[in-house]
## 1
Amino acid sequence: MSRKIHVEILDDAEAVGRKAAARILAVVERKPEAVLGLATGSTPIPAYRELVKLAHERKVSFAGVKTFNLDEYLGLSGSHPQSYRQYMNRYLFEHLDIPLWQTALPDGAASDPEAECAAFEARIRAAGGVDLWLLGIGSNGHIGFNEPGAPRDCRTRVASLAPSTIEASAKDFGGAAGVPRQALTAGVATILEAREILLLATGAGKAPAVAGALEGPITPQLPASYLQAHPSCAFVLDRAAASKLVKP
Ligand code: PGA
């Protein structure tokens, strides 16, 4: 079977960041009112750093751009230092001319989280849908907090973190015990509706999940495998993350 997902394998995480930043910038240059889907985690940091640099160098304005982030920890307000809102402000939004009110993350401290999830979906629809969604991948194959078992048709909702995800986040919360057990996350269906998807993966720890997502069956057990059915999806990998591909 020929692979529908476009795969690019680069030397290292910095090269992956440069490639992702160039693609995001191209989308914004073509469409100054672009709607971007964004991700947190360690993987996109080089991409955000490069995006800021390129936007300044080429004088590309983000004043008309709207952004939607994948997820936020349940119970954390946007002012909590470990919230994804703080991460996004720190690594990206503060360095661009995008008004903060055009940047959306689910509110982890919402009094009615289910209503907040529905409002998040409605806000994406009202913006006209996402032009490009930038994703990372968990070592267990999750996208957003859509952990193994997440169905293809799930939408923005409160989801429980898998044990390996809690472990991976432990360093940010002074140990696993401090990691929130749940999060508000865009669903698989929400993500798949983006017109274009760009998944980044770096490091050998991601190699089995990347291989499964690209070369295994489409299965809820590895949510990133749902991306095989997307008409316009690219994986940008460093050599280590690509190291378990049978057909690189
Ligand atoms: P990471 O997380 O970039 O910190 O590895 C990615 C993810 O879990 O989606």
## 2
Amino acid sequence: MSIMHILAIETSCDETAVSVIRARQGNIDVLSSEISSQVALHAKWGGVVPNLAAREHVKNMPHVFQEALSKAKIKPAEIDLIAVTNGPGLIPALLVGTGTAKTIAYLWEKPLLGIHHIEGHIYANFVRECQNPNAKCQTKTADIKFPVLALVVSGGHTQLILMKKHLQYEIIGQTLDDAVGEAFDKVARILGIGYPGGPAVARCATQVKNEELKFKIKFPRPMLNKKNFDFSFSGLKTAVLYETKKNSELLKDKTYIAAVCHEFQQAAIDVLVKKTVRAAEQFKPKTIMLAGGVSANKELRTQLGEAIEKNLPSVSYKIPALEFTGDNAAMIAAAAAFRFEKMTQAQKKNLLQNWKTLPTNANLKLS
Ligand code: KG4
Ligand code: ZN
């Protein structure tokens, strides 16, 4: 891969994100990664309101865009490729990103590439952890060997994906109902401990001390013993609801809330870790990767790592840097770098027409 500069845009949910990266021989250096979060706006609704998200993207995009270019100290002429998340996600939100990307691609006469949001999350693992491209950085990408087994955990997805090589995905298991991040968010709402729910539950779970064990709360580990690699988190969330309804007078007791958070988080992690290890035993990957917003969860990061070390000592383990776990545009640019590299000259040339034709698809499939 020769040196390339890629500008990427991500607006699939409630973050307006623009990034500029430099890709060089498979190394992805982030020159800027700007994110404007709408968390405070959606907090009062307890979830993301699509039309509000779109309106905020429109409002924030020019500033985020300008900031990303200026922090990267780069001129439009030096950008080789525009990349944008074109699905899946909330359609009003996605359209702000793709509309912006198409306009820029047209005005600057650049090739334009649409990237699947989950492909972006996976490729967050290929972003170099050292942010100074001129320093001698440790290249973590060297630790990643195919086949890769990716555990994708976000607000919309929970999937085990086998990658025999770059950009090739085989979904070997996924959630049959709620995504794990969605379950964290709903449990936080049941407990009234804040929004977004994932970090709130994780924080609350750390408050647990031995005395909380007196509550003897035990939640199910859904589908743990099923032979397939699918997940289900809606029953776990309902179990939390029943538990708290049964003991509603305890909801004022912080130690009780901490015990519920802890047991819920552990139940979710037990299933994710066990199924990932079992999938690895069957599919024999060389690397296991964690991806998506829930990969920020410290306990999940640690416990999956420990399980791999114990059960699969020859398998390497890669987790994204914390700043690239949630939605960001650097991961979209990273995926675009690998996609562009694999294209023929004719395909690359066709990308110049994408400002006219790139579809935006709320239900885009990973392929
Ligand atoms: O990937 P992401 O930023 O957006 C989607 O593509 O969905 O993931 C967001 C999800 C939310 O459900 C959020 O609560 C969850 O990731 N999350 C966490 C943590 N940080 C974010 N879940 C558990 N523990 C965390 N520390
Ligand atoms: Zn995401």
